[in-house]
């Protein structure tokens, strides 16, 4: 099966990795909730299952964490992948311990998005290491690096707060490769004395990376974006669109049910149902079909990919179900104009979840796409007004 590959060669620069966040997701960091204290292990606090104890260090207590996942961890992963719960799924920044680390143990750096943290600790079975968690406002490593919260400044701050120089007798920090875009390794070493090693893309490769003397193979540098990976991300593309669908449905029913003498329920259903179905189809064309078939669709632009998926879905839906009478040319034009653009807009949001583009590409698409979307919606509304006036016998 065909899959996407994106290779970043560390010898040139691991900072070539693109930022993942689309322009519409810029405000997520500022909206992150206050972080609850899960790291400070106190006698009276009820600790989550993944915290198994604590270790005294010169900088204070470090919570010991398990490498296994509980049912709560699995449920948290599901919720974070399917809802806004991910913005609340955080761990306290600071130092954590896996196994029984000592002064010679490696120090791994992570974001405080709990799913990122969970995937990391799950990959460390049998190792004795420290995990230094940065405050990324509950955002994953890659997006946080692009936004500036997974940064050299934050890394320096945490190193100093936990007094890492007193905890380990070496100067190595293993930072995720996807965080390289936000971390100036030279600045970190100059200020703290710790040398940043940009590790493998995937946490599962960390044991092999350490045992090989901190050498990455080509496979360790390669980001794979398989169909399964893309499919796992689609719930977070579908959910936001479906939250707006009831409002869209209400507007459609009001438009088709509106008569000079009032609003008629039968007319609303008869005229509005085709547009309700097409609206639903356009959501799945943009949020499901486009991501899943991403490498197989022509053009690099997500907006164009989404438009193609939306146009094909709209055309086949109209032809298969005959849901819009072909004698009504105005409604056909509205359907073929509005719904492919809706799919295009929804598909464009997937840029915030994919390794397939960077911020410059996203900004370019938005500069071109937003005026097109606004114009398309305006023309569709004008045509609907013309249709209604003709239906009422005014035109």
Question: In terms of topology, how is this protein built?
Answer:
Blueprint: E1 4-7, E2 51-57, E3 60-65, H1 71-82, E4 94-98, E5 107-110, H2 114-122, E6 129-133, H3 141-147, H4 152-161, H5 164-167, E7 172-175, H6 185-192, E8 195-198, H7 206-211, H8 218-221, E9 222-225, H9 227-233, H10 235-257, E10 258-259, E11 262-263, H11 265-292, H12 302-321, H13 329-348, H14 359-391
Parallel strand pairs: 3-4, 5-6, 7-8
Antiparallel strand pairs: 1-9, 2-3, 4-6, 10-11
Helix pairs in contact: 4-6, 10-11, 11-12, 11-13, 12-13, 13-14
Q: What keywords describe this structure?
A:
disordered N terminus; 14 helices; 2 domains; 395 residues; elongated; Rossmann fold
CATH architecture of the largest domain: 3-Layer(aba) Sandwich
Averaged pLDDT = 84
Low-confidence runs (pLDDT<50, min 5 residues)? 1-19, 21-40
CATH topology name of the largest domain: Rossmann fold
Please state the overall shape, judged from the principal axes of the Cα atoms. Answer: elongated
Question: How many beta-strand elements?
Answer: 11
Work out the strand percent.
5-15%
- The order of strands across the largest sheet is 2-3-4-6-5
Largest sheet: 5 strands, mixed
Q: How many angstroms does the end-to-end distance come to?
A: 55 Å
**Which radius of gyration do the C-alpha atoms yield?**
25 Å
Identify the quaternary structure here. single chain
Q: Level of helix content?
A: 40-55%
Structural class: alpha/beta
Number of helices: 14
Reading off the top of the CATH hierarchy, the class of the largest domain is best stated as: Alpha Beta
Order of helices and strands: EEEHEEHEHHHEHEHHEHHEEHHHH
Please tell me the total number of domains.
2
